[in-house]
């Protein structure tokens, strides 16, 4: 299994979704029920997209879990940059199979070295109390410009990739910070996101794709509050870890609102958080990610 060419920029937008679905269809080892192999979506910088390997690790774990149990939480650490030219091996450790909960650890390996380590917990459907924080007010996503429309104006390979070859349509309520900082210094932002095409009716797959999608925007509030943008000269940014909790069933091929914030930034690290709502106001997931975010410091003049 090797990475396949990403769809051309002028292709059907649904091709990007189909391509990612094919990448997420892991190959099981014929002689080891706990070992899987996957390819990567090509990326202009040559590195494996963190959201992709996180989604693959969750799907590998899910392949070893009894039917009827879905992931309700995961905690993962990004340990090394992955190479999109190499396949990724996913080894699953069966930590626990209880009456209601199942726990799995997945290591994603390239060249025998881990690039991601993740623990996920699965639960069978059970009755219980029901409450959630309400969804914040937000304009209809169809009234907002797509990130792709903004990025198509930029003559840069990364901008072209995110504009045309990614599987999700991203629409910011506030002014996007792709090209310039947010002068307000506020760290909160609202973002609508939806897959660019239909996704099969498989709840494990939808939850994995939600993890995939989150990694695109989780550290944006850190940049926004710090007065930086994705175009800041010398910016160095990388995901360090990711935690996610699914509260209710989710469909990534329907509009989802990410209500984002950043409670802290310090020491070259920033924490991004998000509550994720379906368009009808249901809180479907909560997620948090810490990342390394560095920009060149101004000279002291000495």
From TrEMBL:
Keyword terms of this UniProt record: Hydrolase
Kindly give the Pfam families that the UniProt entry links to this protein: 4HBT_3, Acyl_CoA_thio
**Domain named Acyl-CoA thioesterase-like N-terminal HotDog: residues:** 43-123
- Database matches in SUPFAM superfamilies: Thioesterase/thiol ester dehydrase-isomerase (SSF54637)
User: Residue ranges of the Acyl-CoA thioesterase 2 C-terminal domain?
Assistant: 188-292
Do you know which InterPro entries this protein is assigned to? Acyl-CoA_hotdog (IPR042171), Acyl_CoA_thio (IPR003703), HotDog_dom_sf (IPR029069), TesB_ACOT8-like_N (IPR049449), TesB_C (IPR025652)
Gene3D superfamilies hit by this protein: Acyl-CoA thioesterase, double hotdog domain (2.40.160.210)
Q: Which PANTHER family match?
A: ACYL-COA THIOESTERASE, ACYL-COENZYME A THIOESTERASE 8
Q: Which family does it belong to?
A: Belongs to the C/M/P thioester hydrolase family.
- Spell out the protein name for this chain: Acyl-CoA thioesterase II
- What is the originating organism of this protein? Cellulomonas chengniuliangii
